[in-house]
């Protein structure tokens, strides 16, 4: 545990959690307008979502 970083940065979900990420992503693409935001190298770093879509498991609540 001494070599573990105290601020964990998770970027990938596996198993059932990964399935809900895929379901939410596909629902957003089907029911809303999704526009990738790219950096200067052309890599997608974020997404701008216009419209509403059904959220199946990964609901991010703004505090």
TrEMBL record:
Single GO molecular function: formate C-acetyltransferase activity
Pfam families found in the cross-reference section: PFL-like (PF02901)
Gene3D superfamilies found in the cross-reference section: 3.20.70.20
GO cellular component, one term: cytosol
Domain PFL: 1-63
PANTHER family the record matches: FORMATE ACETYLTRANSFERASE, FORMATE ACETYLTRANSFERASE 1
The protein's name: Formate acetyltransferase 1
